[in-house]
């Protein structure tokens, strides 16, 4: 039996992994789908001080308080920033890091640093007085038409401080034994596909590509679950 912790991306919540979590549990594994502070069912906790460190601690605390070991830790989109920070703090508890169409951050860089000035300026221009950024339209994520309205109804504004704070690595991330990058083949943002190409063939990395938009856990839950289950025996 393996332990999966699935971390959502910006604007989403743990709800987005329901289809994948059900398949993994049916296969006999433990699955955690935490919702980061200020999002999903925890939107009532939103405030301007929520930042990347808050979300890293959300997940790191889960690992500590649940006494989790040999974790397969998956982060979607912005969740790539979060799981990298968790690995820096709790790498000894993590077996595998899986970046799901995700940001792969460098030490000392923020999400805004990673996505570049055009997206940064466009995003900052939409920030409200409450320090949150509204969710983009579903067309941005290329969510399949059957699920687009449902996903839109669940998404929340995201605290902009999460995108501004730089990630600081501490060395514990080097204790993680395996890394995987999964790319969506129908997402207009170029960075995930570029990372997929760069990591293909690199020592220590496994790469895969799935059909679907950015929200692969919604567009391709069966295919994604199969890939995650491959990590159990790695």
UniProtKB/TrEMBL annotation:
<protein>
    <submittedName>
        <fullName>Alpha/beta hydrolase</fullName>
    </submittedName>
</protein>
<keyword id="KW-0378">Hydrolase</keyword>
<dbReference type="InterPro" id="IPR029058">
    <property type="entry name" value="AB_hydrolase_fold"/>
</dbReference>
<dbReference type="InterPro" id="IPR052897">
    <property type="entry name" value="Sec-Metab_Biosynth_Hydrolase"/>
</dbReference>
<dbReference type="GO" id="GO:0016787">
    <property type="term" value="F:hydrolase activity"/>
</dbReference>
<feature type="domain" description="AB hydrolase-1">
    <location>
        <begin position="4"/>
        <end position="226"/>
    </location>
</feature>
<dbReference type="Pfam" id="PF12697">
    <property type="entry name" value="Abhydrolase_6"/>
</dbReference>
<dbReference type="InterPro" id="IPR000073">
    <property type="entry name" value="AB_hydrolase_1"/>
</dbReference>
């Amino acid at each position: 039996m393996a332990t999966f912790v699935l971390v959502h991306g910006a604007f989403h919540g743990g709800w987005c992994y329901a289809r994948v979590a059900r398949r993994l549990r049916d296969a006999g594994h433990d699955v955690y789908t935490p919702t980061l502070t200020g999002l999903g069912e925890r939107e009532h906790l939103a405030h301007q001080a929520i930042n990347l460190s808050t979300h890293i601690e959300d997940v790191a605390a889960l690992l500590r308080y649940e006494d989790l070991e040999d974790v397969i830790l998956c982060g979607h989109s912005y969740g790539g920033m979060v799981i990298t920070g968790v690995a820096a703090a709790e790498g000894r508890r993590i077996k595998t890091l899986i970046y799901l169409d995700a940001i792969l951050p460098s030490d000392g860089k923020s999400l805004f640093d990673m996505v570049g000035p055009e997206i940064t300026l466009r995003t900052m221009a939409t920030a409200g007085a409450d320090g949150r950024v509204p969710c983009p339209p579903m067309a941005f994520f290329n969510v399949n038409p059957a699920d687009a309205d449902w996903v839109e109804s669940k998404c929340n504004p995201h605290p902009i401080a999460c995108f501004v704070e730089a990630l600081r690595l501490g060395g514990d991330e080097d204790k993680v034994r395996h890394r995987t990058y999964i790319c969506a083949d129908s997402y207009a943002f170029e960075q995930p596909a570029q990372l997929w190409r760069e990591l293909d063939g690199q020592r220590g990395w496994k790469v895969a590509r799935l059909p679907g938009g950015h929200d692969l856990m919604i567009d391709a839950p069966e295919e994604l679950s199969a890939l995650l289950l491959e990590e159990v025996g790695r």
